[in-house]
Specification:
Pfam families: ATP-gua_Ptrans. The chain is an alpha+beta fold and 358 residues long. Helices cover 47% and strands 15% of the residues.
């Protein structure tokens, strides 16, 4: 499978499947951090040491690719072989982190065919296993991540301390090395101004709330990533149960807010949704922030049955396709901000028109 596969598909194959509670939960992610014993952490590694880590993973892949379904069609891609634009596309598809794209001169990523598995190499840690599932499926994502972890550990000697657990570059990951996160769409809570009260309360119970691309990113389109902050002193099941309990409460609050909006402000809500759809269907120039906000409204309208003939997966697709890197990849050339805004509007119009005809 070639790199073009990852560049030319706006949404990963796993995103086309409707998961549990997908009207609120976009995705569940498990990330596992591991380091190799006897090697300096990536920030201190030499080029030859970093390349050796990549070679070890590459050898494991070649030896076992036919044995494991999660390695079907997998390919190892070195960051040095990618342009800045290609790396941006992979970030926008959540297949690599901004850190790997921007800071890792000697990094790589192993991606499987449906892009549900991404193994980042020489990011903050030597190995970052990432598994993505649609909807609320943290347990299933963890089971797959654990299987991948076992596979790698059969080939690699991980840095482990009997007292502290798995050793990582960042102290907050020491222990299990697991970060579980859920991407939530919370438009009704935002409209009813309940998020300002809810989000600080979440951080007080040991969870982190971040934007669409993780730490330091903005919550575009009312998408919020909620994850555990503590990995030391808790086992994997405790981490997942704590996060899932809070996430289910957030889903309940969002459903309640949606119901309340329909009871109190139905016409206003329908008007907002259809105005947003009309703007997207006819705009000639639009920036990414406005487009994400309008797509959020339309996605809510689809979930509530206000808009028919457009699938929720198209909204997911557009939320990726309108990002700067993917737009330029689609155009086949670098674009300035105004050119991107014009191209974004045209792409949205064409995609919505195509959906209505199908």
């Amino acid at each position: 499978m070639s790199l073009e596969h990852f560049m030319n598909h706006a949404i990963s194959e796993w995103m086309r499947v409707k998961g549990p509670l997908s009207d609120v939960v976009f995705s569940s992610r498990i990330r596992v951090a591991r380091n190799l014993d006897g090697f300096p952490f990536p920030m201190l590694s030499t080029a030859s040491q970093a390349e050796e880590v990549i070679r070890k993973v590459e050898q494991a892949l070649k030896q076992d690719q036919s044995k494991y379904s999660f390695l079907a069609g997998a390919e190892l891609i070195r960051m040095k072989d990618l342009s800045d634009l290609e790396k941006s596309v992979l970030v926008e598809k959540h297949l690599i982190s901004p850190m790997l794209a921007e800071e890792s001169r000697h990094g790589a990523v192993l991606l499987n065919k449906d892009e549900s598995v991404s193994i980042m190499i020489n990011e903050e840690d030597h190995i970052r296993i990432q598994v993505l599932f649609p909807g609320l499926q943290m347990k299933q994502a963890w089971e797959l991540a654990n299987e991948i972890d076992d596979w790698l550990e059969s080939h690699l000697n991980f840095a482990f301390d009997e007292k502290c657990g798995y050793l990582t570059s960042c102290p907050t990951n020491v222990g299990t090395g697991i970060r579980a996160s859920v991407m939530l769409h919370l438009p009704a809570l935002a409209m009813t101004q309940q998020l300002n009260r809810l989000l600080p309360a979440i951080t007080q119970v040991g969870l982190a709330v971040r934007g669409i691309y993780g730490e330091g990113s903005e919550a575009l389109g009312q998408l919020y990533q909620v994850s555990n902050q503590v990995t030391l002193g808790l086992d994997e099941n405790e981490i997942l149960e704590n996060l899932q309990g809070v996430v289910r409460q957030m889903i309940e609050h969002e459903h309640t807010a949606r119901g309340r909006l329909q009871e109190v402000s139905l016409i206003q809500l329908e008007d907002r949704v259809h105005r947003s759809y009309g703007t997207l269907a006819h705009c000639r120039i639009i920036d990414s922030k406005e487009a994400m906000s309008l797509l959020s409204d339309v996605r809510l309208g689809i979930d509530l049955g206000f808009i028919r003939g457009v699938s929720a997966s198209v909204m997911n697709e557009l939320m990726v396709m309108i990002q700067p890197g993917f737009l330029q990849q689609y155009a086949g050339e670098r674009l300035n901000a105004e050119q991107r805004d014009i191209r974004r509007a045209r792409l949205i119009r064409e995609r919505l028109a195509m959906e209505q005809k199908s």
